[in-house]
């Protein structure tokens, strides 16, 4: 099974991806927990180009190409081999992030993003959990966490609000696989919502 977690920066998706991986492992499943951009040595190199770039280093189109290149490597080196071995793959972000960040929030590039996806990726998760949280709360959580990978989080509240709208829209666009999960409350409360939706 192939599962993705999505949402705005600081919504809690990495925490929930990790909690679900631990819960499934405790039940005896073999789980590969991975992330994007990254998840394979080559894709982690591309991640550094993306998240360590200062300010507006890349155009939205170039970002699409870099994220898609990283995803292709991640798919070839990590995701497909794990799925072929019967393992469960849980990824912290996948193609929906490109649809929302580059395709909608940074500009109107959905057609470009879709064409790249069809050419180079061509696979969707079986289930996608969008952790839905208001951007002010999410930014507060992100700031409290600190860290130096602030290339995207520094884009501000207005950008995060466009993202939140974009992620909510995925549930309507892909109703068979995307589940909107209320991200408020304790870690265990959110985890219970994820399990119920799985
Ligand atoms: N339900 C929650 N209640 C309070 N704090 C939370 C909750 N879930 C996560 N956090 C905290 O919020 C911060 C961000 O969480 P996390 O790293 O899981 O988010 P994220 O969506 O993966 O962020 P990013 O995309 O920016 O990496 C962390 O410090 C985490 O411990
Ligand atoms: C896959 C993907 C990611 N992004 C952005 C979203 C985040 O701001 C960063 C990654 O940071 P995280 O803390 O690991 O979530 O990259 C994007 O804009 N487009 C994408 O396809």
Automatic annotation (TrEMBL):
It catalyses: dTMP + ATP = dTDP + ADP. It comes from the Bacteria. ATP binds at residues 7-14. Its EC number is 2.7.4.9. Signal peptide: none annotated. CDD domains: TMPK. Phosphorylation of dTMP to form dTDP in both de novo and salvage pathways of dTTP synthesis. This is Thymidylate kinase.
């Amino acid at each position: 099974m192939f599962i993705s977690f999505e949402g705005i920066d600081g919504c809690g998706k990495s925490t929930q991806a990790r909690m679900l991986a631990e819960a499934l492992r405790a039940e005896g499943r073999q789980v590969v927990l991975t992330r994007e951009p990254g998840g394979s040595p080559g894709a982690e190199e591309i991640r550094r180009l993306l998240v360590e770039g200062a300010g507006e280093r890349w155009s939205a189109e170039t970002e699409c190409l870099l994220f898609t290149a990283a995803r292709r490597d991640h798919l070839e080196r990590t995701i497909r081999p794990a799925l072929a071995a019967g393992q469960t793959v849980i990824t912290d972000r996948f193609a929906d992030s490109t649809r929302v960040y580059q395709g909608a929030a940074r500009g109107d590039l959905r057609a470009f993003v879709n064409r790249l996806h069809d050419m180079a990726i061509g696979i969707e998760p079986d289930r996608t959990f969008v952790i839905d949280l208001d951007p002010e709360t999410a930014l507060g959580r992100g700031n409290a966490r600190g860290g130096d990978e602030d290339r995207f989080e520094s884009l501000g509240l207005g950008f995060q609000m466009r993202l939140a709208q974009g992620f909510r829209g995925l549930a309507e666009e892909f109703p068979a696989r995307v589940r909107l999960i209320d991200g408020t409350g304790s870690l265990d409360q959110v985890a219970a919502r994820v399990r119920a939706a799985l």
